[in-house]
Fold each of these.
Amino acid sequence: MPFEFRSLMFGIVILLAVFFILADISEVEEENRNHGGTRTFYLPSYLSKSNRTVVVEPDPTQRAIVGGSNPPPPSCSTEATSVEWTFNRTLSNLIRKNILKFLDAERDISILKGTLKPGDVIHYIFDRQSTTNISDNLYRLLPQVSPMKNQHHKRCAIVGNSGILLNSSCGREIDSHDFVIRCNLAPVEEFAADVGRRTSLVTMNPSVVQRAFQDLSSELWRERFLQRLRGLSGSVLWIPAFMAKGGEERVEWAVRLILQHTINVRTAFPSLRLLHAVRGYWLTNKVLIKRPTTGLLMYTLATRFCEEIHLYGFWPFARDSQGNLVKYHYYDTLTYEYTSRASPHTMPLEFRTLRSLHSQGALRLHVGACTPRE
């Protein structure tokens, strides 16, 4: 093939690529204008080459404490807002398309049986010098196929664990979604009016076994753990078993109990590339996180199989917009320093990023009380 012809074909391909990129940008900007939005969020890397910037509002709790006269952060339930939230399908689809350049949640949500075998050595993601072995029990719980294979849901709820949920009356609204994601095996029954009961997928960091169930050190704590698992009724239990050294015994204890008691859950163990892929997506889009929180991780994954995503219980501040104290978790007395340099997470930055996406209609962030249903 002559060099000149190859050059011509290459030039045509480049022009077509530029055309489709500009069409994507134009379509999103048009829909953003229809939403009345003025804030811009970095999406694919080609947007970051322009002079656009991420515009985020200051810490809403500081506005409430210092100024007092500014309006509270947008509520997506019963509190009045000046602009009604409208789903921006074009922007949501564009985010999904660009996340797929970094990871595919259907594939990366779990290691599958056959990709590993009992005895295989795994290097921990955050401690590459340390290793663990795939136990026979853990191997038995690896899924044959992705637990999210071919799944698509119209409306999904991701429920964080902030105390902002207390007295919110959001339980029925959360349960009305087609798919409900919860974090770190948080209790629901005694808080159902505020957080709901339905669970489609729930995460369980190994540290939860120690913190919430006292390392299963007695029959009482083992039974409490089993009772929580039984309440999942066939849901996906997502266990990040290979993140950091120190949790291998707790994972094995949990896995053994699931097998011994034939607990009806679909276990999933995230791929070894997942966390770095998620972090890479956000860093590429100028969101300078250290390590994604479980909430941001779940939102990133949910874009793959959820059309419209609603977030509840995301509030990384010690006080609400009226200056009232807010518990770190709605269900315990654990405290947390949100802005500590020692923390592996950058929660306030994540929240402001999600709030910017809310303002553009890509997701809906619920931070107020919900309307009681008749």
Amino acid sequence: MAAVLDFPPEPERQPQGTAGRPALSVPSASGSGLKPIERLTSDGRIERINPEIDAKTVLRYSSQFARNYIRSDYNFCASKIAVARGGKVKALEKALRDTANWLGKTDEWLARHEARRLEMPHELIELTITRPLAGLLVRCLTQYDRIFVRSTERMIERKITDQDRANILANAERRLKHIVQVCMPDNDQYDFDGQRHES
């Protein structure tokens, strides 16, 4: 599966104003159409953590993937990030920064394909940030959801193909799921340089 950055590079263009262009809208019978998140898994685990920082943020999301990740994986990752030490911190920093950089470049690539703004139904949820790296995970989720919306806009206007969009989202989702995999092993499973021990 090709990454979005494998697409042929396009020449830089000056953005044209879209103020006169009407925004598209997607009708939804009940708000976003996503099932509301009643509770996040690992609630008990994160409540037992003494956070490095005591912050909350409100995340806006429109995609089913973001909803599932928030419900099933966010609190688990935030609690594992809070107690990470030594080489595991380095492994998490690398995974999160690589993901954030890839998502940022993909977002920039999509932005070069101008399209009318799509008014996507969305949901809001308050998340606990236990450590700056958990804040970076929230940023990655925000970037993912922006890519979800922008790729939909560009696909509707035939600026990218359905397959382009599928490849972009699959790559983004794989990178976010990789962060969960890095969170799972205990601290002692990582060398000081962030490499995981061979089994």
Amino acid sequence: MTNPTPNHPDETTPVLSLQDVGYAYTKGGKRVLDHVSHDFLPGRVHAITGPSGAGKTTLLSLISGLAVPTAGRVLHNGDDLAGKDRYAYRSRDIGVIFQSFNLLPGLTVAENIILSMDASGKRFERPKQDIARDLLAQVHLPAEYANERILHLSGGEQQRVAIARALSYDPPVIVADEPTGNLDIATQEDIMAIFRSLAHEQNRCVIIVTHSPEVAAASDEVFELAPLRRRKA
């Protein structure tokens, strides 16, 4: 299921490709994923959907370089991730937004963002504090939030900080795990507007794992690992 994106044609080179990917947690064990193939393009928001147990979290781990497939290949710009420095890949090429945010509560907002910049090993032409404040504007937070402690923020505000942190070293791929799961409708719509801006205006590849039909509908493409099941009353 694909929604057209007029400013970004479909005929582009995939930044990530799944080629007949399979995964099992134990050798010879039951596969969580089997024969999965898909391309992820820059300039688009991709939603990965499916019921619990379909392998969405496992697929996210493979795309993020946290695990390697037990069958098939995950390609990044045509290169097999299994043969690359996956720490460098996670620190520079892909920004991951975790479902639980994984922000450090003892640090300020700016310190959380700058920590990821430091971990990337990249050189920055501007002071990191200035970059952090600019990133807050991108995720619709006031500049004065830079000095706030994480524990003082709402769930929606922490989600925005997590997005800013993922953007801090300018990765071409952004991956988010259920980024709107505990948010109200208005905040969910604003978060999705941020993701669409990252894809359509900055030409990033945005990949979102979600159970939300609203998030799927707001995405450019939906990759369904298995048919969505209706929740029992």
Amino acid sequence: MTGSARDSPVPRPGDVTGVPHPGWMDPLMAACTDGSFDGLLPRRRPPEDRGPNEVGRPHRDAAVLVLFSGSADAPGPHPPEDARVLLTHRAPTLRSHSGQISFPGGGVDDTDSGPVEAALREAWEETGLESHGVDVLAVLPELYIPVSNYSVAPVLAYWREPMEVASVDPAETARVMTVPVGELLDPANRFLLRHSTGWTGPAFQHDDLVVWGFTAGILAAMFYSAGWDLDWDTEDVRDLEQTLAASANGEQYRMSAEEARRESTDPLADRTVAGVPGVRSGHDPDRAEEPLDLPADDPRRGYR
């Protein structure tokens, strides 16, 4: 953590640090503090005792670093041309989350003071990011992922002093990217993905890679709630499996029907499509469902 945030109490989910940020980030900060952002995400809750889920997977707290860079003196309300966001391409050979495009992050360790330290530590381990140039702005409310039984706190930050970053361990991270925000907002790079069970989520095209799942949901909700969205075709709905197979993601274990079913039938969840108001998840009657009897330890059960 940097600046005044270092000496203040350890930020927890729902906290704002009060560290200064560029004017162009004002709309995003407002959306992340007045409920507009998390109101665009599916509503789920972890087990009351934060214990194992129904297939025995233990609950764990986690954090991701949502790190934006861009001109410090740009007034907004829209991002400047040089605005970027830090993303990683996980190695396709990994057993868990293989080939996915994600924010740096991971589980909160016992030695971490909380989600901020976890997010910065993971970013350093994955990309070599030095935290002294990062201003942590807010720790957003936790988002629960039923399949992995993780409660994930997005840590929103501004990259005050951008530096060269790269994959620290190619066996874990295939590529580190600072993706232009304008490219992600370009309507030509936006569409929806749908699984045969009806699970539907936002997606972004970046070169030959596809950003989807948890990461795309966070970005879509941020862009919409901040008023940064451009008019894009929400009726452009593509097949999840086919789209990933044609991409360079190299995902070995894609969303299974069991996983999609458990998310969509969770009584604590709704059918909200993250960051895309007016669009709902739903079953596609023209496609047959996959078998739903995957073993609990089958890696395809967890795509995020």
